[in-house]
């Protein structure tokens, strides 16, 4: 093989599923490996690549997970050996294993057989994988219209993407309104809701809500709390962040005594309830120990008020995230936003700015500034609990993530808020802000599809970039080219 680097792991998944080998797989010890069920591909969450597989090694049948790496060394490089999510792996498969290592070890110390796939795959298959990888490198975008959409007038692209962007905004508003109704229904029934995944009754589905039902400040605070935390979690940690905000809800947070250590008390609640910090944690580092001691004392003082559920540390994802996006940093940001929400009247501040600032550029900059959070305290010099960071953390939330919060949370939230209180002029103003907002996106879909559509300059316009996400997910990825206005122009 001329270049081992050219075959990504994703191409190995297809080989695993098709089981197209030249002869029977064998371990380095010579035991036959029979694949009874290759398992289901885990494309959504962090963890092993295939779940619930069944294999026979020698005379023993195993049920569990499969991890596939390009190289044997990736097991440690990717941190699988210290990640509890990989404790259920029953077979490690890699394309290369130059040192002929027969096993990998899980975090709980279990020895797992490792098989090298390279010698069981036909040369022509390897060559085809190489050629496909090289082709994909030349054309990173998967759009079928990539070679033809140059002929599509910009006006057609802009009009269609703007329609999709507005439709996506309206979907967010609808989702927010549905959650608002849930919170009000639970409030009326006086149901405390630390539990995730409750089922709402038929009574809720049949209930007719009036605008007057939504006059209670606490449901609006809880709603914004959940939405901001979900946004802070971004794609990989948005689910546990949302669950944490529902578990450590406003009812509990309001019971925490206000003093000069309030932010650290919030950090204590979020870290312990989130399962990131365990009571048995210990360290010899003085700075870390001092922080943990303070946080633990805070938790001891507030835990009598908490009777909800705790998250597990395995629910949080650190792998393949930039340290700036680690959930620990996001929780530090969340603790400070909680203080703003509860004691600095964040909702009223936002509403006042939207109402009184007429210059939209000034308004956008003013809104953004509320969510750019400079670092301070322990987390200024730490990305994780057990070791200091190599470089100082400058921001808990930078300008790009602040933009994401404004676009995906604040604007749709206040569109619903103003509609509930009958201010249609401010709802129209929110839509106007959305259509002129400019942001630098970190979203790979926006970047790659925008480039493929030759919209490099215009794609910073939020309404269009949101339309690009909707275009890719609902048209491009589903090959609905002839239902897309751009595709119709290219292929007809």
Q: Structural class, from secondary structure content?
A: alpha+beta
Question: How many domain regions?
Answer: 2
Q: What is the rounded distance between the termini?
A: 42 Å
Helix amount, in percent? Answer: 40-55%
Helix and strand element order: HEEEEEHEEEHHHHHHHHHHHEEHHHHH
Total count of helical runs of at least 4 residues: 18
Please give the oligomerization state of what you see.
single chain
Gross morphology: globular
Describe it:
- The structure is a single chain.
- This protein is of the alpha+beta class and 492 residues long.
- The chain has 18 helices and 10 strands.
- The strands form 2 sheets. Strands 1, 2, 3, 4, 5, 6, 7 and 8 form an 8-stranded mixed beta sheet that branches. A two-stranded antiparallel ribbon has the order 9-10.
- Helix 13 (360-371) crosses helix 14 and helix 14 runs antiparallel to helix 15.
- It is globular, with a radius of gyration of 26 Å.
């Amino acid at each position: 093989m001329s270049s081992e680097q050219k075959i990504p792991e994703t191409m190995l998944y297809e080989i695993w599923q098709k089981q197209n080998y030249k002869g029977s797989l064998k371990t380095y010890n010579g035991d036959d490996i029979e694949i009874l069920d290759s398992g289901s591909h885990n494309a959504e969450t962090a963890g092993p690549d295939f779940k619930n597989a069944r294999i026979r090694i020698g005379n023993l049948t195993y049920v569990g997970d499969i991890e596939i790496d390009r190289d044997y060394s990736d097991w440690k490089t990717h941190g699988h050996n210290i990640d509890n999510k990989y404790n259920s792996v029953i077979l490690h498969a890699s394309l290369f294993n130059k040192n002929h290592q027969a096993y990998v070890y899980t975090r709980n110390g279990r020895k797992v057989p490792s098989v090298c796939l390279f010698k069981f795959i036909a040369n022509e298959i390897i060559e085809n994988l190489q050629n496909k990888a090289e082709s994909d490198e030349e054309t990173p975008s998967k759009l079928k219209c990539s070679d033809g959409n140059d002929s599509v007038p910009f006006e057609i692209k802009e009009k269609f993407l703007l329609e999709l962007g507005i439709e996506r905004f309206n979907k967010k508003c609808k989702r927010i309104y549905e959650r608002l109704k849930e919170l009000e229904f639970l409030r009326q029934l006086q149901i405390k809701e630390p539990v995730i995944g409750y089922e709402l009754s038929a009574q809720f589905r049949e209930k007719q809500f009036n605008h007057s039902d939504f006059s209670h400040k606490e449901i609006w605070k809880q709603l914004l709390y959940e939405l901001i935390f979900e946004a802070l979690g971004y794609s990989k940690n948005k689910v546990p962040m949302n669950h944490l905000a529902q578990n450590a809800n406003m009812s509990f947070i309001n019971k925490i005594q206000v003093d000069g250590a309030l932010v650290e008390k919030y950090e204590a609640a979020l870290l312990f309830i989130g399962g990131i910090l365990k009571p048995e944690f210990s360290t010899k580092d003085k700075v870390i120990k001092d922080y943990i001691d303070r946080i633990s004392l805070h938790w001891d003082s507030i835990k009598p008020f908490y009777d909800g559920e705790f998250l597990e540390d395995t629910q949080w994802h650190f792998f393949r995230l930039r340290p700036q996006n680690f959930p620990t940093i996001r929780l530090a940001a969340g603790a400070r936003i909680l203080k703003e929400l509860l004691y600095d009247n964040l909702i009223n501040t936002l509403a006042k700015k939207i109402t009184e600032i007429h210059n939209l550029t000034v308004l956008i900059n003013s809104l953004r500034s509320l969510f750019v959070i400079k670092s301070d305290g322990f987390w200024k010099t730490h990305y994780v609990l057990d070791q200091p960071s190599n470089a100082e953390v400058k921001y808990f939330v930078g300008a790009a993530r602040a933009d994401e919060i404004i676009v995906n949370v604040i604007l749709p939230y206040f569109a619903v808020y103003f509609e509930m209180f009958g201010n249609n002029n401010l709802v129209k103003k929110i839509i106007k802000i959305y259509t002129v907002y400019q942001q630098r996106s970190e979203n790979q879909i926006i970047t790659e599809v925008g480039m493929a559509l030759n919209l490099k300059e215009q794609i910073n316009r939020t309404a269009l970039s949101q339309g690009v996400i909707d275009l890719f997910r609902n048209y491009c990825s589903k090959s609905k080219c002839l239902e897309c206005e751009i595709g119709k122009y290219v292929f007809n």
